[in-house]
Amino acid sequence: MRAFFLFWVTISSLSYGQRSDFSHLDFKKADSIALLHKGASLENLPLLVFNLTAKLPHEAGKFRALYTWVCTNIENDYSAYLKTRKKRKKISEDREAFLDWNNSFTPKVFEKLVQHRKTACTGYAYLICELAKLADIECEIVNGYGRTPTLILNEESIPNHAWNAVKLNDKWYLCDATWSAGRIMLKEDGPEFESDYYDGYFLADPALFVKNHYPLKTKWTLLPNPPTFEQFLQGPVVYKEAFGRTIIPIAPKKMVVELKKIEPVVFKLKAPERMLKNSLSLSLKRGYSSESVNPVIERQAENYNLKYVFDRSGSYDVHILVDSTIMATYVVKVKRK
User: Fold this and answer.
1) Is 189 helix (H, G, I), strand (E, B) or coil?
2) What is the H or E stretch that residue 192 is in?
3) pTM to 2 decimals?
4) What is the span of the domain harbouring residue 156?
5) Do 221 and 285 fall within a single domain?
6) What is the distance between the alpha carbons of residues 37 and 73, in angstroms, rounded to a whole number?
7) Nearest-CA neighbor of 162 among 91, 88, 93?
8) Strands (E) located in 16-86
9) Is residue 6 in a domain?
10) For residues 337 and 285, what is the distance between their CA atoms, to the nearest angstrom?
11) Structural domains of the chain, count
12) Residue 225 sits in a domain of what CATH number?
């Protein structure tokens, strides 16, 4: 059965936005302040917040300094994530037990965070929330499902991720400090965190964010018509680089596409107007062979349509590339006529 705690909530009362709302702001000062206080103690959070925000006039800039500091000072603890996942799995079918455990678990995570400056996603989300509230910025922890190219989810999967919603200038925005902080490298001697700050998940477009984040309470998609959990699971794989460029796959809606030879497939992307047509291409992988192809590209309003016709049957991994960097992946199964 699907997870018991998916609540369907309307979001008519939520006004939402995206990072482009702040295109007039330069976050360099906020980032430099965060860098100036690198290694600062977590023992006195009000002092930390004051030091990071006092010289910044705008709410968005204050939050940016807090976010950048967390992402560049806290290490992702993969072993803690595994322990948390194991506990969640044990009690996922007992709603009351899960909620009680989740509420009591977060303060324990924070204690370890203060001592070791390591945490899993729950700790990142909790710290972001606490710092924001001390700066008089409304913020929420959002629990749900995180989907990555290497993590396969299904309808039986348990919630595995946490991130934040933050209210700036009376609009709600989404961000994921865990994924902004860096990545876990699985090496021979065990998992190792590699710090690599990436701000693509900072105030991301909700329509893109929902491609790999699905909240337990659907109001936190910040979308008027959120996808169902099943639609989320069936969607294409979207890579972090898409967040840096705000490339949103619109169609096909499902990752697996079935068609016949000589039948065209059209990949539709929402992308910034400044992007050039010749920066777009497709990479087709079939078995052990791969090739780059140039689809027929049309610009329609905010969208790019990439049309391609397969002349051979078989199963293809189709990567959508911008400047030779993968943004999204589909699986196209081409049948004989």
Assistant:
1) coil
2) strand 190-195
3) 0.87
4) 19-234
5) no
6) 10
7) 88
8) 75-76
9) no
10) 21
11) 2
12) 3.10.620
